Amino acid sequence: MGAVLQLMFGDIEYSFLRWPVSGLAGGIIILSVAAFSVYRGSRFFRWFSGVRFNVTLIAALTVMGIVMGLIPQAGAAEIPGLPARFGLLSVTRSWPFALIYVTLLLSLGTVVVRRAAGFRWRDYAFYLNHCGLWLLLFSAGLGAADLRRYKMVVPVGGVERRAQGTGGETVELPVAVRLNSLDIEEYPPALAVLDRASGTLIPATHPDYMQLGDTGRAIIGGRDISVTGYIHHAVPDGRGGYREAVMPASAPAAEVTVRDAATGAVVAGWVSYGSAAQPAASLDIEGGHSVVMTRPEPRRFASDIAAFTPDGRRVAGVLEVNRPMRLGHWRFYQYGYDTDAGRMSQYSVIELVYDPWALPVYVGIALLGAGAVSMLWSGRRGKSCRNNGKHTAHRRLDDGPQECK
């Protein structure tokens, strides 16, 4: 049925499921589970809530996950063709995925209701696992339409409320961000040899680099390159050299000596990548080549921000990569900065994610984790019980965990 609907209507656009439609859809799913549970004694209910049917649905979702991993999820609009028509390029938006997902929610819900009808405390591992999985699928699926991502460019010392959505549109958000300061730390750059005629590094197929430190030595392109001095925060001294000055306009600079192994010629001088406030410096050598410095890679960049909403809620702190901040349903991530300006960047790029369904998703994951630990503990008890030399009677798999009698 899903394949036929996919061929007829194409991918599903979940935007229509945004709140309050998502809440209405969730209520219909819960009411459907309750309606099925009225007929707990029927053969259909026993099959629908049975282990075989649940495992089949989970296996189908697993197969779809494997398809997502093997086939790039580009979408029919980007790569048209037969795979796109069957939804293989957009699995989560395909009709087969949606139908199996809804069916699994209904089936898992009836499983929980079926066991809850004969509630026993010793089945806690079952309740934790099944309730956690159901809550995770329920919240993540219905909350996907309410999840929104924005990128906000905030100037240093300024306040911003406008952001760019995933479609490129500019919107005004109900949350504002003030950027107090931006701190950027860089790794020491590297030296390389450039062919001035072609503008490429040598060797062309696999360029050689020399990582800078206080001193160092390397052979690049038949030249013996020695570093006699390195200044990470340097500015020109006005006499053809560099001096140390810790300031945003500074740039890494290295004093190098180059000896040509074939001719014995020696050239010495300073090399710098430069910055937005000072030009780059290279050292010309024989053969139409030059010793140059690569762009310094960022080691750490962090934004000191304060975020607030019109209703008075506020959060402040230092935002770093992999260290987000949270304010209500909003999460803030350090996304980037002006890489051309480097440490002189005058703005920070912050990603804002609005996800009102995040809390129940985390609760579902926690219940699943607790259920997994509980199953390990129950397995240990079952093993000791089976090895006590007494007669053991096993219950059916779909009736609960095995017991010793």
Describe this structure in words.
- The chain has 405 residues and is an alpha+beta fold.
- The strands form 3 sheets. The protein has an 8-stranded antiparallel β-sheet, with no helix packed on it. Strands 4, 5, 6, 12 and 13 form a 5-stranded antiparallel β-sheet that branches. Strands 7, 8, 9, 10 and 11 form a 5-stranded antiparallel β-sheet that branches.
- A hairpin with a 2-residue loop joins strand 7 and strand 8.
- It is elongated, with a radius of gyration of 31 Å.
- 24% of the residues are buried.
- The C terminus is likely disordered.
Compact overview of the structure:
The protein is an alpha+beta fold. Helices cover 31% and strands 31% of the residues.
Task: Detail the topology: elements first, then pairings.
Elements: H1 2-9, H2 21-37, H3 43-48, H4 51-70, H5 82-85, H6 95-116, H7 124-143, E1 148-155, E2 159-165, E3 170-186, E4 190-195, E5 200-201, E6 210-211, E7 216-220, E8 223-236, E9 242-244, E10 251-260, E11 266-272, E12 283-285, E13 289-293, E14 298-308, E15 314-320, E16 325-327, E17 330-337, E18 347-354, H8 358-386
Antiparallel strand pairs: 1-2, 1-18, 2-3, 3-14, 4-5, 4-6, 4-13, 7-8, 8-9, 8-10, 10-11, 12-13, 14-15, 16-17, 17-18
Helix pairs in contact: 1-6, 2-6, 4-6, 6-7, 7-8
